[in-house]
Amino acid sequence: MSAPAVALTPLRISPETPFDRSVVEGLVLRAFGPGRFAKTAERLREQSRLAAGFVARDADQVVGSVRLWEITVADHPALFLGPIAVEGDRRRGGVGADLVQACIDHARTTGVAGVLLVGDQPYFARFGFEQAPSVTLPGPVDRRRVMWLPLTEPAPTGSAHPAA
Q1: Parallel, antiparallel, or unpaired for β 114-118 and 76-81?
Q2: Which of 158, 133, 2 is CA-nearest to residue 78?
């Protein structure tokens, strides 16, 4: 005899609210640990303004999050994506991909040149991200992991820094 079917509540992707801030910070800390504070990407985020954030909710519980930050790359307005954090028991279910897509959809409405991130090429290529070896970040980073999603401009040559 088979087990009864369990009705799954679909996840809902929605904009992050001020009430989500502490939950999101806890989620990111659980996902990446304190080592994230030593990364170049974190330095760029610390100095940039938050442009948008999205959360994945299962009922009222936040199970995933991602943020976009205002930056410029070689004087082109852009957004910096990350970090993407998903609760351990919800990984591999497409939550991260849904969050990335929410960021891309938002970015397309802003008129920025593109979206920059530091991540795995095999994962992010499916969204249209390309390696961007001509973009430099303010610190050490594996150049193969610097990626650009062109929206109005191909990957510029130059440095990424917080938007003025």
Answers
A1: parallel
A2: 158
CA distance 24 to 18: 10
Rounded Cα gap, residues 113 and 152, in angstroms: 5
- What integer best gives the mean pLDDT of the chain? 89
Ranges of residues in the chain whose predicted pLDDT is under 70: 1-9, 35-38
In this prediction the pTM is: 0.89
Structurally, at CATH architecture level, domain 12-162 sits in 3-Layer(aba) Sandwich (3.40)
CA-CA distance, 92 to 133, in Å (whole number)? Answer: 29
- Range list of H helices, the chain: 21-32, 40-47, 95-108, 121-124
Q: What residue segments make up the domains of the chain, in order of their start?
A: 12-162
With tokens 């936040």, the residue in question is 62
